[in-house]
């Protein structure tokens, strides 16, 4: 049996879920907790699951991904037979009739054709976990099923969200639903026989379908032998700016942070050469993540500061997320705010959002 496994990270269907945070970048490039990006978790899990080659369907905003993923070894893909391919749109085929994310599967069909793998693991970046899919892959191979969907079961008070739920019967998967009382969440990850995936892609293109999962798999589910595998670990779902903000605030708890980033496997990311954080006299930081390269003269509480941020004397940052290279001048006050990269907040300015609706400042803005 061929034990090789191909990975596909499909970012095309989730381009706009995070609103302002994805105006200038793909969802996988969105910074998270000071030094990571959302795609880091998916790549780390794939590397730990035995994937050697990953194709990233990057959408139209792929420049930052190209830079971030330039050194595959930093994500656990070591050796001459491992690859991470960032695959942008390709519109050069005049006979191409594919639509939606099917364009990526059509225009980059060589990724499947040239792979020696018999099975493909497909994921996005809306779901992250410090786990791996090795057990799910083993279960899929042993079952001989066409598709195995990765999910998790939650109990108790199930929060409302647009996360898709799975309808199961025994070990079989029968369908999907948005029923909020169903606690069997679908992570958006599935493992599929390569031959089955190729057939589904061709069916979708021939019938002018636009979404591989919804039109080729979900609507045709009865045509395939499908099952599921539940993971057991810390998980987070991203489907809005609010969910992004809430997930960041949850991980400011020290025990949760350590368990999530250093639990089963250490989450890997691009290595930085920034100097250590500089805490000047009179500065303070409480229950916060402060990345390398930060210069802190003011006070930070319950917040996330990315690399190369400057917080001036007398400035206050509370319950906020500050992306890289931001400048917060003396006397400014930020509360429940998200600053995108390269934002400058001038002296004495006050910006306040709410926990239910954080105030987002666009990239390269000056206020």
Structure description:
This protein has helices at 38-48, 63-68, 102-107, 110-113, 134-143, 194-206, 212-218, 241-250, 254-262, and strands at residues 5-10, 31-32, 36-37, 51-57, 83-87, 119-123, 127-129, 147-153, 165-169, 172-177, 184-193, 226-230, 235-237, 278-279, 284-286, 289-290, 295-296, 299-301, 304-305, 310-311, 316-318, 321-322, 327-328, 333-335, 337-339, 344-345, 350-352, 359-361. The protein has 367 residues and is α/β, with parallel strands linked by helices. It has a seven-stranded mixed beta sheet. The chain has a five-stranded parallel beta sheet with strand order 14-17-20-23-26, with no helix packed on it. Strands 15-18-21-24-27 form a five-stranded parallel beta sheet, with no helix packed on it. The radius of gyration is 21 Å and the shape is globular. The mean pLDDT is 93. Keywords: Glycogen biosynthesis, Nucleotidyltransferase, Transferase.
């Amino acid at each position: 049996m061929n034990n090789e496994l191909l990975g596909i990270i499909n970012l095309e269907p989730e381009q706009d879920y995070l609103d302002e945070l994805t105006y200038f970048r793909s969802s996988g490039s969105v910074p998270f907790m000071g030094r990571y990006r959302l795609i880091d978790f998916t790549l780390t899990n794939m590397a730990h699951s035995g994937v050697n080659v990953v194709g990233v369907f990057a959408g139209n905003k792929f420049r930052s991904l190209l830079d971030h993923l330039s050194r595959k070894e930093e994500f656990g893909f070591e050796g001459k037979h491992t690859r991470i391919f960032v695959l942008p749109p390709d519109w050069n085929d005049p006979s191409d009739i594919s639509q939606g994310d099917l364009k990526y599967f059509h225009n980059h069909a060589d990724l499947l054709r040239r792979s020696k793998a018999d099975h493909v693991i497909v994921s996005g970046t809306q779901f992250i976990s410090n786990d791996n899919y090795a057990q799910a892959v083993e279960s899929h191979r042993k079952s001989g099923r066409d598709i195995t969907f990765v999910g998790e079961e939650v109990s108790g008070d199930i929060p409302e969200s647009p996360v898709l739920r799975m309808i199961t019967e025994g070990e079989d998967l029968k369908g999907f639903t948005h029923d909020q009382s169903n606690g069997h969440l679908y992570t958006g990850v599935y493992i599929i026989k390569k031959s089955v995936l190729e057939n589904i892609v061709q069916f979708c293109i021939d019938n002018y379908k636009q979404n591989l999962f919804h039109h080729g798999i979900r609507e045709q589910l009865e045509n395939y032998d499908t099952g599921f595998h539940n993971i057991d670990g810390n998980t987070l779902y991203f489907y809005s700016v609010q969910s992004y903000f809430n997930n960041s605030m949850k991980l400011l708890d020290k025990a949760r942070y350590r368990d999530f980033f250093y639990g089963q496997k250490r989450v890997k990311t691009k290595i930085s050469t920034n100097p250590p954080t500089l805490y000047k006299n009179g500065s303070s930081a409480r229950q916060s993540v402060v990345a390398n390269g930060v210069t802190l003269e003011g006070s930070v509480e319950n917040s996330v500061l990315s690399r190369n941020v400057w917080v001036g004397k007398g400035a206050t940052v509370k319950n906020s997320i500050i992306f890289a290279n931001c400048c917060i001048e003396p006397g400014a006050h930020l509360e429940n705010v998200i600053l995108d990269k390269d934002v400058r907040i001038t002296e004495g300015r006050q910006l306040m959002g709410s926990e239910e609706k954080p105030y987002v400042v666009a990239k390269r803005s000056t206020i």
